[in-house]
């Protein structure tokens, strides 16, 4: 009996979307037990979004079944490649102001 009641209980799911840096939107939903990722997106009117989707940080397709407690995330495209951003930041700071060698002992050689 308890298994049948648990199977019929609605799923609690969170949907998280950040349209821009510093702007986070979150929705808490209750969906039927057989709900899929697309159902959660449809419930918050984001089913037509071109953003990539995932569950708890792992890419997921729209036909993925949801489980109770899942966190559905929409990922906006990166504006800058993280490797390029790191190189540019390092170039601005210089070799002495970043990384392992930023706290060099007085009089020590570069890189030590």
From TrEMBL:
Membership in a protein family: Belongs to the UPF0125 (RnfH) family.
InterPro entries linked to this entry: Mopterin_synth/thiamin_S_b (IPR016155), RnfH (IPR005346), RnfH_sf (IPR037021)
Signal peptide annotation: none
Protein name in UniProt: UPF0125 protein HUK68_07335
Species: Comamonas antarctica
């Amino acid at each position: 009996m308890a298994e049948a009641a648990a199977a019929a209980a609605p799923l609690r799911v969170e949907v998280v979307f950040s349209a821009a840096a510093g702007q986070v939107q979150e929705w808490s939903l209750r969906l039927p037990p057989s709900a899929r990722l697309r159902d959660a997106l449809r419930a918050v009117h984001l089913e037509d979004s071109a953003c990539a989707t995932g569950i708890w940080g792992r890419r997921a397709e729209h036909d993925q079944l949801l489980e109770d407690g899942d966190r559905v995330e929409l990922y906006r495209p990166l504006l800058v490649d993280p490797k390029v951003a790191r190189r540019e930041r390092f170039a601005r700071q210089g070799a002495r102001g970043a990384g392992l060698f930023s706290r060099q002992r007085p009089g020590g050689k570069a890189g030590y």
